[in-house]
Amino acid sequence: MDSTAARRHVVITGAAGALGRAVASRFAAEGARLALIDRDLQHLQSVFAHPEPDHGGTLLHAADVTSDTAMAPVAAAILDAFGTVDVLVHVAGGFEMGEATHAMSRESWMRMMDLNAWSFVAVTSHFIPAMLFQRHGKVVAVSARGAMAGAATMAAYAASKSALQRLVESLSHEVRGAGINVNSVAPSILDTPANRQAMPSVDHTRWVSTGAAARAVAFLASDAAEAVHGQHMVLDGLS
């Protein structure tokens, strides 16, 4: 991977989830310093009670990523500790089956939009200025293959992930001239404990492993992807 990996400073949201853990492990193995954000500090601390060694320390912070007010002091603390942020990986988000589109509640709509779209704005607003100042950086969001089309009782989720992709594309156009790459990975079904529990009869070997998704994130955060801007790397697995 990058020759500069050992010196990189990486921020990961949704770090305590299955994919967040895999992404954190991947960057830790490369020697990066990590700032890990999740909504529950105790859970975050329990997940990373024994962090990967030899990566210069890990910062753990609790924050509601949908709240600009909550993100501001956390981002300030990370930038104060690191001095710079080279990679921002926005894993945080949510999925839920909803009502039929004609019967959808505003609460369902706003919940998905806040978690999957607005959170990207609330998080990047505090780290992009530092990347603009240093004139380099990588931003990788986790969108979804489901952003490509609607599906029954999934309107709010699909729309929110589609909105996230449009935000990724727009931000990419705004900052690429300053040496910042903004992209997303778009997995189908991730092989996580939660998905196995929710779909016990489905062949999970056809799903996308969290390790494979983490490797895709690492690629988009690497120098090898310096010419990639505003793209969504679809991870189909065998589905």
From TrEMBL:
Q: What is this protein called?
A: Short-chain dehydrogenase/reductase SDR
Report the sequence similarity comment from the record: Belongs to the short-chain dehydrogenases/reductases (SDR) family.
Record InterPro entries: NAD(P)-bd_dom_sf, Sc_DH/Rdtase_CS, SDR_fam
State whether keyword Electron transport applies: no
Identify the stretch annotated as signal peptide in this record.
Answer: none
Q: GO molecular function: any one?
A: oxidoreductase activity, acting on the CH-OH group of donors, NAD or NADP as acceptor
A Pfam family assignment: adh_short
Taxonomically, which superkingdom? Bacteria
Biological process annotations from GO: fatty acid elongation
Cited PROSITE patterns: ADH_SHORT
Which key words tag this protein in UniProt? Answer: Plasmid
Gene3D superfamilies under this entry? NAD(P)-binding Rossmann-like Domain (3.40.50.720)
